[in-house]
Design goal:
This protein is mainly α. It has one domain (about 25-95). The protein is built from five helices and no strands. It has helices at about 5-25, 30-45, 55-60, 70-75, 85-90. Helix 2 (about 30-45) packs across helix 3 and helix 2 crosses helix 5. The longest helix is centred in the N-terminal third of the chain and has 23 residues, at about 5-25.
């Protein structure tokens, strides 16, 4: 294996490990995050963001997420301080 091919392999492995670490850091299932993003998309079309995470808290309560404080903390730590930032900063990490 030449040096260029080796670097490609190492980069691929590194990215895979990053994805795995991200998945393991999630405080709730990925599918629930995707539902949260859909919920926020709809709600934020109806109302402007009020610079809180009120809609996210509403979603967590409606869906009976037990560890909602852990979810809110995780969102804040990853750049989602309010509902519109959750969509802008967090959703892209799931692509």
């Amino acid at each position: 294996m030449d040096e260029k091919q080796r670097k490609k392999e190492l980069t691929k492995e590194f990215k895979q490990k990053q994805r795995e670490a991200f998945e393991q850091s999630l405080p709730m299932e990925r599918v629930l995050f995707e539902k949260l993003f859909d919920y926020l998309d709809i709600k934020l079309e109806e109302n402007e963001c009020d610079d809180t995470n009120k809609l996210t808290r509403e979603f967590l309560t409606k869906n009976k997420i037990e560890n909602n404080q852990a979810v809110l903390s995780w969102l804040s730590e990853n750049g989602g301080y309010c509902d519109c930032e959750i969509l802008a900063n967090i959703e892209e990490k799931f692509d």
